[in-house]
Design brief:
13 strands, PRISE-like_Rossmann-fold, Rossmann fold, two-stranded parallel ribbon, NAD(P)-bd_dom_sf, SDR family oxidoreductase, alpha/beta
Length: about 350
């Protein structure tokens, strides 16, 4: 591993931070690039840079020649047209800067199930709903999607410079992170903590289809394992892979297990969707009080809760199940128990004093 130099783009997020920790544990020389790097991962070499500033990016990476690059970040804009423009530019700038170095052997890109379900503006809408289980060979939807734009820039760079690539499509990442835009696990932990503080019920906020249907999610750790596996095995070169824990569940069962962890009363689907994005902002002041009361390290509710994205996932009108056959056949056999993934996350959030 001494000759392998990893560059993790977005090392402060859920997927990037978990990946950086695993790379370091396996002996990789690892750099972490973010606009505002954190310094909480031992032996990670932080780099401050903005992917939209090509000149500044080139300067920040001037002395670094990564062999393996992992792109785990994106920027949300107001419209999908702007998402496409901005996120494509981020990938294009990065591969252009790396092109000069001629050091990259493999570049991996993390996207997600919006590849199949559509962008934010048309997410899981009638008329665009795919068949499930979702498989990697399903055609792209006939609409703008910044994931497609990211992929296309990656493919162009690979054709020009000769590196191999992989694309990874997790479903609802579960892991520890603060200030992350897609953070269901922490959002539900904060919601349950508020319910416990108020003595109120832990009410299901999503759709009937999600409540009753079969689902799966992705532990950030298993995503990290697949990223490293794909970057290190020729059989995985130049392919896209779904990545989930490997088990399936129904929210109508798991919801009660989550409630039991926090000692609150669970309530299932009741006639209509009850968005967390409407409820959670009301508790901003309460969370500040709870932070003081319990000695929490983050008093800003909006830094912990990404209610809008949790609503997006839990409010879908169909069940969502992800096929993992492709990477399984090629030798990737990692597995996680989803109930344990949530429990371990909640334990870590408590240990880190992010929830009471």
């Amino acid at each position: 591993m001494k000759n392998r130099i990893a560059l993790v783009i977005g090392a402060s997020g859920i997927s990037g931070s978990n990946l950086a920790e695993k790379l370091i544990a396996e002996g990789w020389n690892t750099y972490g690039l973010s606009r505002h790097p954190k310094h909480d991962i031992k032996d990670l070499k932080p780099i401050a840079a903005d992917l939209l500033d090509k000149k500044g990016l080139g300067f920040a990476l001037s002395d670094i020649k990564p062999t393996h690059v992992f792109i785990t970040t994106w920027t949300r804009m107001d419209t999908e047209a702007d998402n496409v423009r901005v996120n494509a530019a981020m990938i294009r700038n990065l591969v252009d800067v790396l092109s000069v170095k001629k050091s990259a052997e493999h570049i991996a890109l993390v996207t997600g199930l919006k590849h199949y379900l559509g962008p934010f503006e048309a997410y899981a809408q009638e008329g665009f709903l795919p068949q499930t289980p979702l498989k990697e060979n399903q055609p792209r939807l006939k609409m703008e999607n910044f994931y497609y734009a990211q992929e296309d820039e990656l493919f162009k760079g690979a054709a020009r410079d000769g590196y191999t690539w992989s694309v990874h499509r997790p479903h609802t990442l579960i892991g520890k992170a603060v200030g992350n835009a897609m953070n269901m696990g922490t959002t539900l932990a904060v919601y349950a903590s508020i319910c416990k503080e108020l003595g109120s019920k832990f009410v299901w906020p999503g759709s009937a289809a999600q409540w009753n249907g079969i689902s799966d999610v992705t532990d950030a750790g298993i995503l990290a394992e697949q990223l490293i596996w794909a970057s290190s095995n020729k059989v995985a070169a130049n392919q896209a892979f779904n990545i989930v824990n490997g088990d399936v569940f129904r929210w109508s069962s798991l919801w009660f297990h989550l409630a039991a962890y926090f000692g609150v009363e669970a309530v299932g689907y009741e006639e209509k969707i009850k968005p967390l994005d409407v409820q959670m902002p009301k508790y901003a002041d309460l969370w500040k009080e709870m932070a003081t009361k319990y000695g929490l390290i983050e008093s800003r509710l909006d830094q912990l809760s990404s209610a809008w994205h949790t609503d997006l996932d839990l409010g879908r009108p169909i069940e969502v199940l992800t096929d993992m056959s492709k990477s399984r056949k090629l030798g990737f056999t990692a597995y996680r128990d989803t109930q344990e993934v949530f429990t371990e996350l909640f334990d870590e959030l408590k240990k880190s004093r992010l929830i009471p």
